[in-house]
Amino acid sequence: MEISGKLLMKLPLQSGVGKTGNAWKKQEFVIETQEAYPKKVCIQLWGDKADDLNPIQIGDMITASINVESREFNGKWYTDVRAWRIERAGGETAAPGYTQPASAPSYPEDSLPDASGTFSDESYDSLPF
Fold first, then answer.
1. Minimal CA–CA distance to 10: which of 48, 47, 54, 40?
2. By the 8 A CB rule, do 2 and 42 touch?
3. CB 8 within 8 A of CB 32
4. Quick check: 66 and 49 in contact, CB under 8 A?
5. What is the CATH number of domain 2-88?
6. What confidence score (pLDDT) does residue 89 get?
7. How far apart (Å, rounded) are the C-alpha atoms in residues 114 and 112?
8. What contacts 81, CB < 8 A, 6 or more positions away?
9. 33-52: average pLDDT
10. What residues have CB less than 8 Å from 68, skipping those under 6 apart?
């Protein structure tokens, strides 16, 4: 699932050590959706993903890819909204090493059909099949 909105606040980074001795960290942030009736949503980033929020500034438009999960504890239900990827609106933080193509590929004019949808040269007739 994806949710988009304006970054309203970054809550303090939380960290600790679990029962098994493994270190953990959690970064929570709040976005406000841009709908007729805007909603505020608190989203969590866990582990190394918590650092993904550092370059994003308050007020930036972002899109978060999320998982929503609920769990029961002592008869009460708790819901988490966990992000597994965040990016500025428009995909400004695309995957490293990816570059957008400069332009659409070009084809020789003789390999395209004319306005009527037919090929104008003999290359159409010389196809091997």
1. 54
2. no
3. yes
4. no
5. 2.40.50.140
6. 81
7. 7
8. 3, 41, 42, 43, 44, 66, 67, 68
9. 94
10. 1, 79, 80, 81, 82
Per the listing, tokens 């308050």 go with 58
Report domain extents, the chain: 2-88
Q: What is the pTM of this model?
A: 0.66
CB atoms within 10 A of CB 42: 13
Res 10: pLDDT: 96
pLDDT given for residue 91 in this prediction: 64
The Cα-based distances of 25 to 12, 18, 66, 76, 101 in angstroms read 11, 10, 18, 25, 37
